[in-house]
């Protein structure tokens, strides 16, 4: 099947799986990325290896019509932030791969909240494109368990693996999956986590602080210390009785800051005084 792919590296294994199943690529639609949290290097490399054009501006209905004129039968969307419209009645198939078990957790980047809530199972879903984000009929799902040791990075990589498996399954007989797709029905929409969600609350205790750091990972949490914000990507810690107030820096060893919590200590092992958007690709303290 001739297809176009719209997305970034977040779910790039879906792109690769379709190629491995013998589908023929025609064009890549991607979007600008910051090179810190979002990336599109991998999908662009794949496109260049396949000698297909790359576009990093929003796909328009006229461009979808042009795809149809060129024989494209399917538009596959994965990690593409713009709404895609104008495909119905123009190309036979258009579906999105989303990193949640729909209909729960529609919306951007739901994995962080899943970790914050301590979900024990997660996965990805494929659905027909619809007017509302992530609301179209379900073509399939891939599930996996989530352990206490999982982090944002590990769950996102497992979502990538699951996306590849799901895309491969759909590629075997997309018309059949399309015909038997199930309506989602009522679900939930999760907003992108806010800066308030990223704040480390040392008064909540060591476990709560480490759980927040685990959930945000490279997106980073925010620690307010001595009147300044520290943007934290990694930390460790322990519970220990003490009489100090929470949020106090009590030790600095090679840039690793030890901070009191209500019931112990947290060591900020990877942090930066600047937020991500003020930095380049190079790293943190």
Task: Summarize the topology.
Elements: E1 2-7, H1 12-20, E2 24-29, H2 41-49, E3 54-55, H3 61-69, E4 74-78, E5 93-98, H4 111-116, E6 121-128, E7 138-145, H5 152-172, H6 174-179, H7 195-198, H8 206-216, E8 221-225, E9 228-239, E10 249-253, E11 256-261, E12 264-272
Structural class estimated from helices and strands: alpha/beta
Q: Distance N terminus to C terminus?
A: 48 Å
Radius of gyration: 21 Å
What oligomeric state do these chains adopt? single chain
**Class of the largest domain, according to the CATH hierarchy?**
Alpha Beta
Tally of DSSP β-strands:
12
Number of helices: 8
Which stretches of 5+ consecutive residues score pLDDT under 50? 281-285
Question: Any idea what the CATH superfamily of the largest domain is called?
Answer: Formyl transferase, N-terminal domain
Q: Structurally, how many domains make up the residues? A: 2
What's the helix-strand series? EHEHEHEEHEEHHHHEEEEE
Q: Helix fraction?
A: 25-40%
Mean pLDDT: 95
Q: Which strands sit side by side, in order, in the main sheet?
A: 3-2-1-4-5-6-7
Largest sheet: 7 strands, mixed
Shape: elongated
Q: How large is the share of residues in beta strands? A: 25-35%
Detailed description of the structure:
This protein has 285 residues and is an alpha/beta fold. Helix content is 26%, strand content 27%. It folds into two domains: 2-179, Formyl transferase, N-terminal domain (Rossmann fold), CATH 3.40.50.170; 195-278, Formyl transferase, C-terminal domain (Methionyl-tRNA Fmet Formyltransferase, Chain A, domain 2, Roll). It has helices at 12-20, 41-49, 61-69, 111-116, 152-172, 174-179, 195-198, 206-216, and strands spanning 2-7, 24-29, 54-55, 74-78, 93-98, 121-128, 138-145, 221-225, 228-239, 249-253, 256-261, 264-272. Strands 3-2-1-4-5-6-7 form a seven-stranded mixed β-sheet, covered by helices on one side. Strand 8 and strand 9 (228-239) form a beta hairpin. The radius of gyration is 21 Å and the shape is elongated.
């Amino acid at each position: 099947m001739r297809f176009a792919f719209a997305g970034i590296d977040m779910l790039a294994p879906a792109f690769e799986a379709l190629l491995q199943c013998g589908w023929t690529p025609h064009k890549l639609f991607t979007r600008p990325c910051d090179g810190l949290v979002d990336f599109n290097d991998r999908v662009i490399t794949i496109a260049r290896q396949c000698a297909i054009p790359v576009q990093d501006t929003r796909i328009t209905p006229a461009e979808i019509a042009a795809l149809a004129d060129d024989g494209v039968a399917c538009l596959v969307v994965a990690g593409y932030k713009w709404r895609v419209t104008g495909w119905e009645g123009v190309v036979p198939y258009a579906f999105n791969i989303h990193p949640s078990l729909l209909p729960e957790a529609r919306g951007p980047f739901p994995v962080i909240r899943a970790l914050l809530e301590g979900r024990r199972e997660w996965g990805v879903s494929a659905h027909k494109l619809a007017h509302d984000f992530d609301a179209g009929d379900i073509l399939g799902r891939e599930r996996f368990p989530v352990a206490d040791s999982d982090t944002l990075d590990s769950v996102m990589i497992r979502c990538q693996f699951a996306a590849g498996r799901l895309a491969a399954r759909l590629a075997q007989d997309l018309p059949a999956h399309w015909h038997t797709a199930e309506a989602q029905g009522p679900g939930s929409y999760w907003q992108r986590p806010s800066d308030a969600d990223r704040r480390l609350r040392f008064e909540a205790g060591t476990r709560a602080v480490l759980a927040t750091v685990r959930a945000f990972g490279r997106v980073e949490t925010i620690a307010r210390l001595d009147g300044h914000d520290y943007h934290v990507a990694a930390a460790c810690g322990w519970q220990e009785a003490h009489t100090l107030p929470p949020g106090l820096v009590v030790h600095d060893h090679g840039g690793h800051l030890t901070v009191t919590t209500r019931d112990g200590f947290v060591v900020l092992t990877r942090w930066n005084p600047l937020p991500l958007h003020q930095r380049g690709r190079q790293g943190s303290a």
